[in-house]
C-alpha cells in the first residue's frame, strides 16, 4: 500500500536497500558511525547538539549507543513506509523526542545527505538517491519541525 509520504516503488526500493545495508549488515556500529562522521564533516557545528551523548568522542560507548538508537529509529520508519497510520504515529513519536531541542530544519537535509554519502559505499551503485530523497526528506523535516 502506498502512502502519501512517497510513491510505492520508491518505498519498496528504500526498504530493500535499507535491508541490505542494515538488517543484513555485519557491522551496524560502523554504519552508524559513518553516518555521524559524515554529518559532522558536512555540518561541524551540528555536533554541539549531541553534547549530552558525548559527541566530542564519537568512538565513546555513549555516542555509539546513541547512534545505534537513531538507526533503530530509522529502521522503524523505513519498515512502516507502507503502513501510513503507523508511520505517522512513529513520526509523531520521534517529533516529540526532538521538539524540545529546537533543531534547525536545515539539519534534516544534512542527515539525508549523509545517508546519500554512506549508503552507496555499503550497498554499491544500485543505491537510488532519488527514491531515498523522496521518502526521507519530508520525514526528517517532520521529525525536526
Ligand atoms: C530520520 C531522521 C532521524 C531519526 C530517525 C532520529 C532518531 C532519533 C532517536 C530515536 C532519538 C532518541 C535516541 C535516544 O533514545 O536517546 C533521537 C534523538 C536525538 N536526535 Fe534524532 N533522529 C533523526 C534526525 C535527527 C537530526 C537531523 C538531528 C540533528 C542533526 C537529530 C538530533 C537529535 C538529538 C540532538 C537527539 C537527542 C540527543 C540526546 O539525547 O541528547 N536527529 N533521534
UniProtKB/TrEMBL annotation:
Gene3D superfamilies: Globins (1.10.490.10). Signal peptide: none annotated. GO terms for molecular function: heme binding; iron ion binding; oxygen binding; oxygen carrier activity. Disulfide bonds join 6-135. Keywords: Disulfide bond, Heme, Iron, Metal-binding, Oxygen transport, Transport. The keyword Metal-binding applies. One of its GO terms (cellular component) is extracellular region. It holds the Pfam family Globin. Coiled coil: none annotated. Residues 5-145 form the Globin domain. This is Extracellular globin. It comes from Haemadipsa zeylanica.
Amino acid at each position: 500500500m502506498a502512502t502519501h509520504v512517497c510513491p510505492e516503488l520508491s518505498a519498496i526500493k528504500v526498504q530493500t536497500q535499507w535491508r541490505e545495508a542494515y538488517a543484513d549488515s555485519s557491522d551496524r556500529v560502523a554504519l552508524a558511525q559513518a553516518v555521524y562522521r559524515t554529518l559532522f564533516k558536512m555540518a561541524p557545528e551540528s555536533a554541539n547538539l549531541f553534547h549530552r551523548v558525548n559527541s566530542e568522542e564519537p568512538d565513546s560507548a555513549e555516542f555509539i549507543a546513541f547512534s545505534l538508537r537513531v538507526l533503530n529509529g530509522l529502521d522503524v520508519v523505513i519498515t512502516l513506509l507502507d503502513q501510513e497510520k503507523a508511520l505517522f504515529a512513529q513520526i509523531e513519536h520521534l517529533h516529540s523526542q526532538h521538539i524540545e531541542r529546537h533543531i534547525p530544519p536545515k539539519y534534516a537535509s544534512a542527515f539525508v545527505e549523509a545517508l546519500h554519502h554512506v549508503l552507496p559505499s555499503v550497498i554499491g551503485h544500485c543505491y537510488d538517491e532519488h527514491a531515498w530523497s523522496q521518502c526521507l526528506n519530508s520525514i526528517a523535516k517532520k521529525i525536526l519541525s
